[in-house]
Specification:
With about 1000 residues, this protein is α+β, with helices and mostly antiparallel strands. Helix content is about 35%, strand content about 15%. Strands 11-12-14-21-18-17-16-19 form an eight-stranded mixed beta sheet, with no helix packed on it. It is elongated and about 145 Å long. It starts with 12 loop residues before the first helix and ends with a helix. The relative contact order is 0.06.
C-alpha cells in the first residue's frame, strides 16, 4: 500500500520542464501546485490550454498509477457530460511514463490536460452550487459504474471504510474537549456505521472531491465545470463520494446540513441513492473530518508550511463542533427528505394510517374536542398580552387573560396550531443547532387549553415509554411518552407535555394503556413548566427518539421535514381542520348577501345562524371547526358524504348523464331494485327530482284514475312547496301567509293517541280516529261529491312525530276505497327503512297504498324522488299525454339511488335503526322519569319525538321550554328541531348510521339541556 508518510518527490520546476519536453514533447513553463504526497506542476504553453505534470510518490505501487490511468481512459470513452482531465501520451506512446530522481527513487509520470475553471475553494458557495456539485459527482459515478481495475482494490487510510483508524491518532489531538468530540464520532461509527458498510453498494469513486479538486465554471459560478486529481480514487462504498464532497464543500456555510442535503439531492438526481446509504451519510461526513483533523494533528510538527494539509483544519473543527451539537437523526431526516424519501422509515405510512382511521380514535378530552366551541390561542401574535406574559414567565397574567376571554366568548377549548410561528420561545435552548443565527419558532405539536386538572385519555392503545419531569422554565414540566403499534401501521410515539406530576407515580415504563385509558391530567402553572394550563400533544414517527429528544419547536427552513417526523397531531386529537382557518364569507356577510339576493321568506335556522362547510357521517362541521351531531337533517339518510354514494355519483357523472328518452341500464335496474322493496302489487315506478315533484305526479295520477278532484288529508300535514301541495297541507294554509283550507280539501283530525279522549280505550284509538275520515266522506256525499284520494304521511312529521294508532290506516283505506278513492302514502320523510322494522312506514299499519311517493333520503342528498304504483293506476295514466321530466331518472341519479339501496342492505342499516332507536327510546323514557315536562316519548327506529308539556294532566304545551331545550342542545353541539301545532315536540331524525356512541352523546346533551332549561 501507499506510504502516506513518505516524502513527496524531490523534483524542481526546472526538472518538470525538462521531463515534459523530453518525455512528452511539451515545451512549457512550470509552476508548482499544492499536493499532499505527489509533486504536481502546471505547464503553461503558448499553443494550448496547458497541462499538469503529475510526478507520483515513489511509494505508490505501479498498479495504482496504472489504475488511475485506466480510470481516466474509461471516463474519456464514457458518454458523460462531466469534464475530467484527458491524458496525453508520451513520445513513446505510453500514457504512464517514469523517471529516476537524483536520490535514486523512481517516479511514475502522467501528463493531463489543464481544465479551465475556478477552484470551489475560491467561490462563494450556495445551495444551487452544492446541488450542481452533487449532479457532477452523480454523473461521474454513474459513468464509473461497472469499471474495475486491480489497482482500485487498495488499502488507503482515506478510504472511509477505514475511518475508525483515526482512533490510533487521537493522542495527537492535545485539546481534551476536541478529543472528546472525535471519540464520540468514532464510537458512533464503530457501533452504528461500520457494521453496515459491507452491505452497501461499492464501486470505484473519485474519493477526494475537496474544494480544490472541484472546478466552477468561470462564466457561471453556480455550475460545476470539472473534477480533477483522481489520485485517491478507490473501490469503496458509493455513499463515501457524497460524504467526502460534503465534508469539504459545506465548511463554514450558514446551514451545513442544508448544503449537504442540496449536494446529496443533486447526486440522487443523477445516480439514485438508497435509504441505507443516506442513513449513514451524516456519520460519514463527520468521519471524513475526523480523519482529516487527526492526520493533520499527527503531522503537525513537520507540515506547518504545507497549506494543502492545514488549510481546512480550523473550518473542519468548527463544523465538527456544530455537528456534535446536532441530533444525527434530525440531520439524517433532512438528508432523506432532500432526496425524496420519508424523513424516517414509515413516516408517510403513519400519517396515511392516521388519516384513514381518523373516525376510530377515542377522545383525548371529554367531551370530544370536535364538539366543543373552540378558539385559537393568540401565541401567533407576538405583541399579544398573553404571548408577552408567557414569554416573560408571567403565567398567572397570561392565564387570567385566557380565562376571561373564554368566559366572555363561551370558549370551551383553546387550540394551539401545528406549525404556528411563535415568538414566545425566548430561551437560548430554542436557538437552531442547524442554521447559524436562526431560532426555532414553529410549534410542532397541537396545544389543547383547558382548566388545570382536566383528565386526558389516550386515543388508541399504547405502551408507556417514559414518564419524567422537565424542571426548566418554559419546559414541559410533566412529560409522558406513549408508543403505539396499531395493526397495519408502523409504530409511532405520542408526547404529552405540561402534565400534572401525579403520573410519575401512577404510570410505569412498559405499562399498557388501552384506548380511552387515562393518561394523566393537565398540570397547573407550578408543575407544567410555567404555562397557562394546557396539553402539548405531539406525534413522533421516529420511535428511537427519547421524549426529551423530540423537538417541540422547529426551524422554518425544515418545516417540511418536521412535518414528517412530527406530523400534525390535530387529527389524532380529534380537532377538525376548519378550526385553524376560515374560508369564504363571514356569517354576517352571508346573512347580508342572502337578504340582498334571495327571497326574503327563505328562512335560516337559529337566531345565531351556523355556517356549515363540511359533513362527515352523522356530523356537520362549521367554519370554526365545531362538529355538530346531526339528528335533524334526514336527507342524508346514510350520513353526510357517504363514500359509496360519492363514488357512484362521480363514476357515472364521468361517463354519461342524459335523459330518459334514451336507453340506459341504470333506470331499469334501479326501478327493479326499488320495487323489490315494496309489497306485491306496487310494481311500476316513475322518477322526479324532489319530494314535491313526486307528490304532484302522484296527485295527477290519482285524479286521472278517479276522475275526481276532492282530497282528504290529515290536519297539520305537509306535502310540498307547489301551490297544489300547499293547498293540501294544513301546516301551510292554516299558518301565516296561508289562505285557509280550499273548498276541495277535507281535513281529518290528527290521529294522535297521546291527545285522544281519555274515555277511549287504547285498543279502539285507530277505529275512533278513523271516524273523522268517515265524517269527511259523509260530508262529501251530502254535497254529491266523493274523494279522489286520501293522502297522508305514513308518520306525520311536522304534526309532531305522530304515530298512527294500530289499525288506523286499515280502517281509513277501507273507507276511502269503498267511496271510490285511492290511498296515497307520502313516504318522503319516513321511507327507506328509517323505521327499522320495515322498508316503508305504511307497512307498520299492515296496508298497501295505491301509490307511494318517495323523496329526501332516496339520494342521500342528491336531488331525486320517485313514485311507485300499481299496474292498474299506471295504465290509466297512459292516456296519450306524455310524462317527461328532463332530469328525472337520469343515469347519475339512478346510480346514486342504487348505491343508497345497496348500502342499506349491505350494512344492515334497518337493523341498526331499530336497535339504536330502541336504545334511544329507553333513554328517553328514563329521562321521562326524571323530568315531569316530558309528557310523551314516541318513536320507531330513527324517527323519534319527545312531547313537552307544562302539566301532564292537562297536557298543555311547553312551547317556550321546548325552544329553550332545542337551543341548549344546539349550544352543546346537537342539531334537532321542534314540531307539532304548538312547536312543543322535540323532533329527531338522525342518519341510519347513527351509532350507540352517537346515541349516548345525544342522551348526555339532552339531559344537560333539560337540566339547564329547568334551573
Amino acid at each position: 500500500m501507499t506510504d502516506l508518510s513518505h516524502p513527496a518527490p524531490q523534483l524542481s520546476a526546472g526538472d518538470a520542464e525538462k521531463l515534459a519536453k523530453e518525455i512528452f514533447g511539451v515545451t512549457a513553463k512550470a509552476s508548482p501546485l499544492d499536493s499532499e504526497r505527489d509533486r504536481n506542476y502546471r505547464l503553461k504553453t503558448e499553443t494550448d490550454a496547458g497541462w499538469i505534470l503529475k510526478i507520483v510518490n515513489s511509494s505508490e505501487p505501479k498498479i495504482e498509477s496504472e489504475f488511475q490511468t485506466a480510470l481516466l481512459h474509461h471516463l474519456a470513452r464514457a458518454n458523460s457530460e462531466l469534464v475530467v482531465p484527458h491524458l496525453k501520451p508520451s513520445l513513446s506512446g505510453d500514457f504512464l511514463a517514469s523517471t529516476v530522481a537524483v536520490n535514486g527513487e523512481t517516479h511514475a509520470l502522467r501528463l493531463v490536460g489543464w481544465l479551465a475553471g475556478t477552484p470551489l475553494a475560491e467561490v462563494g458557495r450556495t445551495l444551487d452550487l452544492m446541488r450542481s456539485l452533487g449532479r457532477a459527482l452523480g454523473e461521474l459515478d454513474r459513468a464509473l459504474q461497472g469499471f474495475i481495475h486491480p489497482g482500485a482494490l487498495r488499502e488507503l487510510d482515506w478510504d472511509l471504510r477505514h475511518a475508525a483508524r483515526a482512533r490510533s491518532r487521537l493522542h495527537f489531538v492535545r485539546d481534551a474537549g476536541k478529543r472528546a468530540i472525535l471519540e464520540r464520532f468514532i464510537e458512533r461509527f464503530e457501533t452504528l456505521v461500520e457494521p453496515k458498510l459491507s452491505g452497501l453498494r461499492a464501486q470505484v469513486i473519485h474519493n477526494d472531491a475537496n474544494d480544490w479538486n472541484v472546478l466552477v465554471d468561470e462564466q457561471d459560478n453556480q455550475r460545476i465545470s470539472g473534477l480533477i486529481d483522481f489520485g485517491d480514487a478507490v473501490h469503496t462504498v458509493l455513499i463515501a463520494e457524497v460524504a467526502i464532497a460534503c465534508a469539504y464543500s459545506i465548511l463554514d456555510m450558514e446551514d451545513p446540513i442544508g448544503a449537504a442535503a442540496a449536494l446529496a439531492s443533486g447526486f440522487h438526481e443523477k445516480y439514485p441513492l438508497q435509504t441505507e446509504e443516506i442513513d449513514i451519510l451524516f456519520d460519514l461526513i463527520a468521519m471524513r473530518l475526523v480523519t482529516s483533523v487527526t492526520f493533520s494533528a499527527s503531522r503537525h510538527d513537520q507540515t506547518d508550511d504545507n497549506p494543502y494539509l492545514a488549510i481546512s483544519e480550523a473550518p473542519a473543527w468548527r463544523l465538527l463542533e456544530k455537528m456534535d451539537a446536532m441530533n444525527p437523526r434530525f440531520a439524517t431526516a433532512i438528508l432523506r427528505k432532500a432526496c425524496g424519501f420519508d424523513a424516517v422509515d414509515g413516516a408517510g405510512a403513519v400519517r396515511r394510517w392516521i388519516s384513514d382511521n381518523r373516525k376510530s380514535f377515542a377522545d383525548v378530552v371529554r367531551p370530544a374536542a370536535a364538539t366543543m366551541s373552540k378558539a385559537i390561542v393568540p401565541y401567533g401574535d407576538a405583541s399579544h398580552v398573553m404571548t408577552v406574559a408567557s414569554a416573560e414567565q408571567r403565567p398567572q397574567e397570561a392565564t387570567k387573560w385566557w380565562t376571561d376571554f373564554s368566559e366572555q366568548h363561551k370558549i370551551e377549548l383553546g387550540v394551539g396550531s401545528w406549525g404556528e410561528k411563535r415568538t414566545v420561545y425566548t430561551d437560548k435552548a430554542f436557538e437552531s443547532r442547524f442554521i447559524e443565527g436562526r431560532r426555532r419558532i414553529h410549534h410542532l405539536g397541537v396545544d389543547l387549553f383547558m382548566a388545570a386538572g382536566t383528565p386526558l385519555y389516550t386515543p388508541l392503545a399504547g405502551i408507556v415509554k417514559s414518564v419524567e419531569i422537565e424542571h426548566e422554565p418554559l419546559g414541559y414540566g410533566g412529560l409522558i411518552a406513549l408508543e403505539h403499534a396499531p395493526e397495519g401501521c408502523p409504530p409511532f410515539v405520542t408526547l404529552w407535555g405540561h402534565m400534572a406530576h401525579e403520573a410519575l407515580t401512577r404510570l410505569k415504563p412498559g405499562q399498557r394503556l388501552e384506548a380511552r385509558a387515562l393518561v394523566g391530567y393537565m398540570g397547573d402553572i407550578h408543575e407544567n413548566g410555567g404555562w397557562t394550563p394546557h396539553l402539548h400533544f405531539q406525534i413522533s414517527t421516529d420511535v428511537q427518539l427519547t421524549a426529551t429528544d423530540i423537538l417541540g419547536v422547529g426551524e422554518t427552513a425544515y418545516l417540511d421535514v418536521w412535518a414528517e417526523l412530527f406530523p400534525d397531531a390535530s387529527t389524532l386529537a380529534g380537532i377538525p381542520p376548519e378550526t385553524f382557518g376560515q374560508d369564504g364569507r363571514t356569517r354576517e356577510e352571508l346573512v347580508a348577501k342572502r337578504k340582498e339576493l334571495l327571497l326574503p321568506n327563505l328562512s335560516i335556522s337559529y337566531s345565531e345562524p351556523i355556517k356549515f362547510v363540511r359533513g362527515e357521517g352523522a356530523w356537520l362541521i362549521d367554519n370554526y371547526g365545531r362538529a355538530y351531531l346531526d339528528c335533524f337533517n334526514n336527507v342524508c339518510h346514510l350520513g353526510h358524504v357517504h363514500p359509496d354514494v360519492v363514488e357512484a355519483l362521480s363514476r357515472q357523472a364521468g361517463l354519461l348523464n342524459t335523459n330518459t328518452r334514451y336507453l340506459h341500464d341504470n333506470i331499469v335496474e334501479y326501478a327493479e331494485r326499488l320495487t323489490a322493496t315494496l309489497p306485491d302489487g306496487l310494481a311500476v315506478a316513475s322518477f322526479a327530482c324532489s319530494g314535491s315533484e313526486a307528490n304532484s305526479l302522484m296527485l295527477r295520477m290519482a285524479r286521472n284514475h278517479t276522475g275526481r278532484n276532492d282530497a282528504i288529508v290529515v290536519d297539520w300535514a305537509y306535502h310540498g312547496t307547489t301551490q297544489e301541495l300547499i293547498d293540501l297541507s294544513p301546516y301551510k294554509y292554516k299558518r301565516k301567509g296561508g289562505k285557509g283550507r280550499p273548498e276541495h280539501v277535507y281535513e281529518a283530525v290528527i290521529p294522535d293517541s297521546y291527545h285522544a279522549s281519555e274515555e277511549w280505550p287504547v285498543a279502539e284509538h285507530g277505529e275512533r280516529f278513523a271516524e273523522s275520515v268517515a265524517e269527511q266522506i259523509e260530508s262529501m256525499r251530502r254535497k254529491g261529491r266523493a274523494p279522489a284520494f286520501f293522502l297522508a304521511e305514513s308518520i306525520p312529521s311536522v304534526a309532531g312525530q305522530v304515530f298512527f294508532p294500530d289499525g288506523y290506516l286499515k280502517e281509513v283505506y277501507a273507507m276511502v276505497r269503498a267511496a271510490g278513492g285511492l290511498c296515497l302514502a307520502d313516504e318522503v320523510q319516513v321511507g327507506f327503512g328509517r323505521v327499522g322494522s320495515h322498508w316503508w312506514a305504511f307497512e307498520t299499519q299492515g296496508v298497501v297504498p295505491d301509490i307511494v311517493s318517495m323523496g329526501k333520503p332516496i339520494g342521500n342528498g342528491h336531488p331525486m324522488s320517485a313514485i311507485v304504483t300499481t299496474r292498474e293506476v299506471a295504465d290509466s295514466f297512459n292516456n296519450g299525454m306524455e310524462y317527461f321530466n328532463t332530469f328525472a331518472g337520469n343515469p347519475v341519479s339512478c346510480a346514486v339511488g342504487l348505491a343508497v339501496l345497496h348500502v342499506i342492505e349491505r350494512d344492515k342499516l334497518r337493523d341498526n335503526a331499530l336497535n339504536v332507536g330502541n336504545y334511544l327510546l329507553d333513554g328517553f323514557r328514563k329521562m321521562q322519569d326524571r323530568f315531569d315536562i316530558i309528557g310523551d316519548v314516541r318513536g320507531l327506529g330513527l324517527f323519534l319525538g319527545i312531547e313537552l308539556v307544562t302539566d301532564r294532566k292537562t297536557k298543555a304545551p311547553a312551547t317556550a321550554l321546548a325552544r329553550k331545550i332545542n337551543d341548549g342542545a344546539r349550544a352543546r353541539g346537537i342539531l334537532m328541531g321542534t314540531e307539532g301545532p304548538h312547536d312543543n315536540v322535540l323532533k329527531m331524525r338522525p342518519p341510519m348510521i347513527f351509532s350507540r356512541a352517537n346515541a349516548d352523546h345525544l342522551l348526555d346533551v339532552l339531559n344537560a339541556s333539560f337540566e339547564a332549561a329547568l334551573r
